[in-house]
Amino acid sequence: MILQCAQGVIISLLIAAISFSQIVQANPSADVPPSHLSPAHLRLLKYETKELFLHAWDSYMNYGFPADEVTPISCQPYGPDFFDLDDTVRNDAMGNTSSTILDNLDSLIILEEWDRLSVVLDYLEGTPDLFNQNTIIQVFESTIRSLGGLMSSHLLLETLRDDPQSRASEVECIKKYDGFLLELALDLGYRLIPAFKTTTQMPVPRINLSKGVKGVPARLQKETCTAGAASPALEFTLLSKLSGDLIFENYTQQTFWKLWSSKSPLNLLPMTLDPLSSLWKDSTTGIGASVDSFYEYAAKMSILFDDKDMWNVFKTSYKALLTHSLYEPLGTVNSGGAIFSNIDVNSGRLASVWLDSLGAFWSGLQVLTGQVRDAVRTHMIYLKIWNTYDSIPERLDFVNRHSETGRPIQLEWYPLRPEFIESTYYLYRATRDPMYLQIGERVLELLQTKFKQRCGFSGFQNVLTGELQDRMETFVMSETLKYLYLLFDAEDKVLLHTNLMDNKNWVFSTEAHPLWYDKRKTVPTIKKKLEDRRINNENSIRSSLLDRITAKFNMYGSLSDNITIAQKAPHLYPNYYTTGDQENVVKVDPYEERFNQCEVSPFSTGPFTSSGYYTLKNLFSSNAIYGNVLKRPKHLGPHKDIELNENFYNRFSLVQNPLECERLPTTELSDVVLGNINFMSSIQISKLPLMKPKGEKHEYDLWIPKMAFSRLKLEKLEVDKIDTMNNRITKEYIESFFIEKSDPLFTIENGTTIVSDVKVDSTSVLRVLQVNGVDVDPRGLIWTSPYLGETLKYTSRNRVVLEGMVVENILSWW
Ligand SMILES: *[C@@H]1O[C@H](CO)[C@@H](O)[C@H](O)[C@H]1NC(C)=O
Ligand SMILES: *[C@@H]1O[C@H](CO)[C@@H](O)[C@H](O)[C@H]1NC(C)=O
Ligand SMILES: *[C@@H]1O[C@H](CO)[C@@H](O)[C@H](O)[C@H]1NC(C)=O
Ligand SMILES: *[C@@H]1O[C@H](CO)[C@@H](O)[C@H](O)[C@H]1NC(C)=O
Ligand SMILES: *[C@@H]1O[C@H](CO)[C@@H](O)[C@H](O)[C@H]1NC(C)=O
């Protein structure tokens, strides 16, 4: 028997997916086509992805251009609704500025589609008034799509033009590229930056491209989200670095740091605020919509601008999320699918049980920041969702409170968002595990068979019924198809994967635009350049654009003083407090260690011989735990578990190492907060790497001098239950904690031992799995010392008693 999953749910799912006996008996080399995920096969997948991109691009150029988008089913140009300003879902990303082009110039460069590129470069060069539009757009959306797209293409074109190694330097449109995309970017930047000039330093969300803030009705400016306010700092700081006009950096960085200094005592930022009153409008946070790119851009700005403060923001936030937001039901603790849930920023408690489609980006960011093990686990949840819905619904409850009758899906559309495939790309680059290619192949197949339309690609309007949308947002090409194409580039042939990009601290923007900045180069001031160009272009079609940006530059950019970013130095809560001179204790923050090591191989087998994915414990726990939510809509046909694709399984699972599912635990899990949660981030958690007096090593142990003010994840061990380590708890084991039953239990108060009659439940024992989000190693113990005023109780054998139960793995140091 190979599959030992205890849960009937899991087994029936597996049987539904593929025949059981086939898994067991298949010979790994016999009937598997040798081409499966071979280099030649991957080249084919890459080629097919490019074909899809070109289909969408050509449809846009034939039927949509110069509007912002093309509608994929009806083949019509599509732009803002000039009559209904309140249709912000439609209007926010469309300024009547040919957004599809702006968002995809760099895609054309990456695909080396020079003829198509040349056509649109000519168009942009001849359209200096591109942004002089009487339209209202959202500042964040046009920053990431248009401003980022223009700067990225500018950087790529300059590199291709100037790098002697570049294979494209002889292409005509590249040879003659003179930097005009940066001028368009500056023009757009000057139009957007007034949104940040508020008295509160919090930006209003929208701007009238030709008339500024005044051209936007007040009702559209009432609310902005944390991601929308904070993240433009990345593109705008880069625009300052590339142009020499510091105004962009000044305003957007002030906003970023002001937001960060408004975090809760738990180091969490809520999702929405009122920019005019500068007040938070809610007290919830998470990793998805409205706050996602805050974390992403803290990490990416730290890379792009070599900014240590930004790195601290990311680290502090990540630790806070591990502590409060990481949701691991039994059966997934430390392995299996993990969810970062929405929580209250003040209490850390679960605030809602939905996951959103945008949150699928998180595992990509975890890879980028070195948290590969965590990344595999968060990605796994989205894989299960994809298996069920052939997509990621915009918002779904991961706990279906109404079980059979309830609807787990809250928002039922899927506009072909890129986040799941983006994370798959990051995970593949980090692990080179073929599972991630297999996932890509399935996504490609769905794009080809289900989502492809006459003029592009349609996502689901309703994943439950299969109804499609007649809209193709610009990110379908600029992100979804781009990441898929890059995923299949296992041979590193695409420009971005070649040595052309060596020595560049480049990152993908949140819209998949590669951006970089070389701080060794002196900051260029384009003032002189602009003057020269104005003289040379005096009568050219571009003179109006040059006049405009030169005037703005003279207004702001001539400032000679360095701008100080007032609130930049954030107050970071130290994770320690001084404990006196404890011998044998080295103060190490176990969280910090996560960032000190480079996790490159979370799996136990090497690439391409087999998939390490099958060595993951609890690979199928989530199928059972979330079985209520993962209900495949009828119109999609039979369930497809990508990880159980028969060919792939036979080829990559290694029959010698058969798929084993651990039993799901049956113990109870609870979360206990001791003391005031607001002081939590100031308690010290250390490792004990030195010798105990008796000479035993403490390398797995934790030292927590003050248990008060901590948050514990507890597992309740009872006879005959299966614990999170896959053991059945025996009577003997529980009894071992109560051998000396006659021993009086006692408490320690004010440093004095007081015999008391505390009653302890002798049929169960508690185990601490996490303290303040820090995992307790199953081999280790937690040491603490009775602290003055602490209300903990201790047994005569120095174990802590909590909630009337003895704790298995906390011991008093004395
Ligand atoms: C949209 O842009 C086009 C140029 O591409 C222009 O002709 C048209 O007038 C604009 N529409 C509006 C309503 O401003
Ligand atoms: C932009 O602002 C101008 C001036 O206030 C206004 O007349 C125009 O209607 C605004 N545009 C839109 C699309 O509302
Ligand atoms: C920088 O921004 C602050 C407000 O955020 C503003 O008061 C100041 O004038 C700006 N400085 C420059 C040089 O733009
Ligand atoms: C501005 O900053 C640069 C780099 O930090 C420094 O070299 C220069 O002296 C500063 N200029 C002024 C006016 O403070
Ligand atoms: C512990 O100290 C507090 C205040 O210092 C006092 O009120 C309390 O009575 C003391 N308890 C014992 C058992 O001495």
UniProtKB/TrEMBL annotation:
Keyword terms: Calcium, Endoplasmic reticulum, Glycoprotein, Glycosidase, Hydrolase, Metal-binding, Signal
Residues bound to Ca(2+): T510
Protein origin, superkingdom: Eukaryota
Chief location: endoplasmic reticulum
Entry annotation: catalytic residues: E141, D292, E394, E419
Annotated GO biological process: carbohydrate metabolic process; endoplasmic reticulum mannose trimming; ERAD pathway
Signal sequence region: 1-26
Family: Belongs to the glycosyl hydrolase 47 family.
PANTHER family: ER DEGRADATION-ENHANCING ALPHA-MANNOSIDASE-LIKE PROTEIN 1, ER DEGRADATION-ENHANCING ALPHA-MANNOSIDASE-LIKE PROTEIN 2
Name by which UniProt lists this protein: alpha-1,2-Mannosidase
Pfam families: Glyco_hydro_47 (PF01532)
UniProt entry tagged with the keyword Disulfide bond: no
Localization (cell): Endoplasmic reticulum
EC main group: hydrolase
Cofactor: Ca(2+)
Organism, as annotated: [Candida] railenensis
